Recover the amino acids of this structure.
């Protein structure tokens, strides 16, 4: 049974067209760096600046071809099944875990590369927070494989509830129970990312069960150890529990969104949105410009901390430039620019970044767990720092958040559940029709483009020949 959604099929078709067009670049492949990243997830001016910086460091020219995706699994399918031609990719933690298990990556960091960077005085890989490196080390990988050698962190954050303070109080938003409030019918949007919804909903459901059994008090939550265990739970029982809750929630939901939810919130077309903290930062700032007050919290029952990181697929053709690109993105000044552009939080944890991000108008937070040295000692001032707690959650919030893991063969079961909940099943015939339609469309466009290019070349040759004859 084929289950997908129309927007996902269209996205794949359009991405395929972009891939083919990108393949027509006149720059030799060895001088091309192909980067595949989430949409709206970088200061794109840095791409041109990297080309200049790379030439300065290596004496070699490089052209960056930049493409985007909005679903982890679509990206993975291209890399895994299609052997897509990319040099640098930015998946989430559980996808990195799967790529490591399936031998799809090559090391980013090795002794020779670090020595090369150290010799030039441009090794910025050491600027990554030890907290992030610790989280990456928890990824399950084949024996002898250190995840931190194969993946370098980029951005991180939490999943929680963005809410309109006019209609929802902070006390109400501090529980996932808000997602089932009949008063909010058709005013709720949910991120169209099944893992980021599945995990918090499982934590919520298991918390209610524990309270009902009397294992914990009526206002208590599960221990962090129990939450971490749930991050591995993709059993039939767990999937059924989440599906039941999501179907109950679906009756109130206005839509499932990949990116437009934040606009719905700023326009007050939605009052709450289950979303990522980075999107929440953007929405809060934009809403303030039109006198709409939004806020974001991580519910008391618990949620997830997520991480995205740079990896190099085993089919990469420009590994050297890929490694330099990742190092370039770890520069503190570049990390700050990326944060200013996207609203998301970089994994770079230098004092320079800490001072730049501190804000006297914010309440003090304990972020010593993040801004610390390699021994885990907090940078002076980071344990009580005025800073945006949406971007940098207080230690107390982190201590009720788990980290997602790959579900392996059980992933298909989870996807089937997600499709049942959303009700967006397509028949195999519909999928085939849509695929053939866009394949034909793309083929015609490419043929026309190639024909036009050949015609122009012939005209140029004739004109050149005429000029030579006239000169004689």
């Amino acid at each position: 049974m084929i289950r997908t959604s129309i927007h996902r099929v269209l996205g794949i078709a359009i991405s395929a067209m972009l891939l083919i067009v990108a393949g027509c670049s006149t720059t030799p492949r060895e001088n091309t760096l192909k980067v595949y990243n989430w949409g709206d997830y970088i200061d794109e001016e840095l791409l041109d600046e990297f080309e200049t910086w790379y030439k300065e460091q290596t004496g070699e020219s490089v052209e960056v071809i930049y493409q985007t995706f909005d679903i982890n699994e679509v990206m993975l399918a291209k890399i895994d099944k299609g052997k897509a031609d990319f040099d640098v990719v930015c998946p989430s933690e559980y996808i990195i875990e799967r790529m490591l298990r399936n031998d799809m990556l090559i090391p980013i960091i090795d002794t020779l590369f670090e020595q090369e960077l150290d010799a030039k005085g441009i090794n910025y890989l050491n600027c990554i927070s030890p907290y992030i490196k610790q989280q990456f080390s928890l990824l399950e990988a084949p024996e002898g494989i250190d995840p931190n050698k194969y993946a370098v962190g980029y951005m991180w954050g939490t999943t929680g509830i963005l809410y309109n303070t006019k209609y929802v109080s902070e006390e109400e938003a501090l529980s996932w129970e808000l997602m089932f409030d009949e008063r909010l019918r058709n005013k709720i949007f949910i991120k169209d990312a099944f893992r980021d919804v599945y995990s918090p909903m499982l934590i919520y459901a298991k918390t209610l069960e524990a309270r009902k059994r009397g294992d914990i008090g009526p206002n208590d939550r599960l221990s962090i150890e129990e939450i971490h265990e749930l991050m591995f739970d993709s059993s039939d029982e767990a999937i059924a529990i989440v599906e039941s809750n999501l179907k109950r929630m679906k009756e109130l939901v206005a839509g499932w969104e990949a990116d437009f939810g934040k606009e719905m919130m700023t326009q007050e077309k939605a009052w709450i949105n289950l979303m990522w903290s980075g999107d929440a930062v953007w929405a809060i700032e934009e809403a303030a410009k039109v006198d709409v007050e939004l806020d974001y919290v991580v519910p008391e029952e618990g949620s997830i901390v997520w991480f995205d990181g740079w990896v190099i697929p085993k089919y990469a053709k420009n590994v050297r430039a890929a490694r330099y690109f990742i190092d370039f993105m770890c520069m503190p000044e570049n990390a700050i620019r990326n944060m200013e552009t996207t609203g998301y939080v970089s994994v770079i944890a230098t004092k320079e970044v800490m001072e730049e991000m501190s804000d006297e108008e914010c309440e003090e937070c304990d972020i010593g767990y993040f801004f610390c040295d390699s021994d885990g000692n907090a940078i002076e001032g980071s344990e009580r720092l005025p800073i945006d707690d949406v971007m940098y959650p207080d230690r107390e919030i982190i201590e009720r958040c788990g980290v997602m893991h790959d579900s392996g063969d059980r992933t298909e079961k989870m996807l089937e559940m997600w499709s049942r909940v959303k009700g967006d099943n397509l028949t195999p015939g519909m999928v085939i029709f849509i695929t053939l339609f866009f394949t034909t469309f793309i083929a015609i466009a490419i043929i026309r483009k190639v024909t036009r290019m050949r015609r122009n070349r012939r005209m140029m040759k004739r004109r050149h020949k005429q000029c030579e004859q006239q000169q004689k």
Summary: The chain has a mean pLDDT of 88. The first strand starts at residue 32 and ends at 38. The chain has 19 helices and 15 strands. Residues 157-304 form a domain with the D-Maltodextrin-Binding Protein; domain 2 fold (CATH 3.40.190.10).
